[in-house]
């Protein structure tokens, strides 16, 4: 089992904690990590590009002039692609970019990035993280004590003051145990979690 130092909000080491190998000591599967990141980015794409085909443009129901005898080329509709205001020949339509990964693969990808953070000493554990009031200055002070600037802070359900205090700090994001994902863990240099959050992570993802 990996041992990590436990810090208090002043940035002082107050003990150590053993991390479960089932979550924080797995073999890192880089291809699954890559697939999980691509999955999240693809699922966030809206794919809203759209143009109308000749069948979707309004109007043009009647033949503009008779077939023969006018001197014009024959035309069947004013909404044909060659007309101004007509439809597009091969019009783009909204596309669904999303795809799926197996649950086991998703879980292993998450464990892989958590393991890599522990191996790189970028996973910090706090004994507790509680603020008496909503104050960005206090949250910034905690991060400065830990010598961290760009961080993902994993919080529990009763940490609303922490969430609201951290939301205006550039480069800092909060997440609950159930909402952490591979992309966010890789995006931020350091992952900060309380002892209770680590226990929850081990319980949910083991």
TrEMBL record:
GO molecular function: rRNA binding; structural constituent of ribosome
Highest taxon above the source species: Bacteria
Alphabetized Pfam families for the sequence: Ribosomal_L4 (PF00573)
Keyword annotations: Ribonucleoprotein, Ribosomal protein, RNA-binding, rRNA-binding
Region (Disordered): 45-85
SUPFAM superfamilies: Ribosomal protein L4 (SSF52166)
RNA-binding among keywords: yes
Transmembrane segments annotated in the record for this chain: none
Cellular component terms (Gene Ontology): ribonucleoprotein complex; ribosome
GO terms for biological process, alphabetical: translation
Family: Belongs to the universal ribosomal protein uL4 family.
Assembly information from the UniProt record: Part of the 50S ribosomal subunit.
Purpose of the protein: Forms part of the polypeptide exit tunnel. One of the primary rRNA binding proteins, this protein initially binds near the 5'-end of the 23S rRNA. It is important during the early stages of 50S assembly. It makes multiple contacts with different domains of the 23S rRNA in the assembled 50S subunit and ribosome.
Protein name: Large ribosomal subunit protein uL4
Organism: Wansuia hejianensis
Taxon lineage: Bacteria, Bacillati, Bacillota, Clostridia, Lachnospirales
């Amino acid at each position: 089992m990996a041992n990590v130092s436990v810090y208090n909000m002043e940035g002082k080491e107050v003990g150590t904690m053993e991390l479960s190998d089932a979550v924080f000591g797995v073999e890192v599967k880089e291809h699954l990590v890559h697939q999980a990141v691509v999955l999240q980015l693809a699922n966030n794409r809206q794919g809203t590009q759209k143009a109308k085909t000749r069948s979707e443009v309004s109007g043009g129901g009647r033949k503009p002039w008779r077939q023969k005898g006018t001197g014009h080329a024959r035309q069947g509709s004013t909404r044909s692609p060659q007309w101004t205001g007509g439809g597009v020949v091969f019009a783009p339509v909204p596309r669904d970019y999303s795809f799926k990964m197996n649950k086991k693969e998703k879980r292993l990808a998450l464990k892989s990035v958590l393991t890599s953070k522990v191996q790189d000493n970028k996973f910090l554990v706090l004994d507790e993280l509680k603020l008496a009031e909503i104050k960005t200055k206090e949250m910034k002070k905690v991060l400065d004590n830990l010598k961290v600037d760009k961080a993902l802070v994993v919080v529990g359900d009763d940490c609303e003051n922490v969430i609201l205090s951290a939301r205006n700090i550039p480069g800092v994001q909060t997440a609950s145990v159930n909402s952490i994902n591979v992309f966010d863990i890789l995006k931020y240099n350091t992952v900060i979690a309380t002892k209770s959050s680590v226990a929850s992570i081990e319980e949910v993802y083991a």
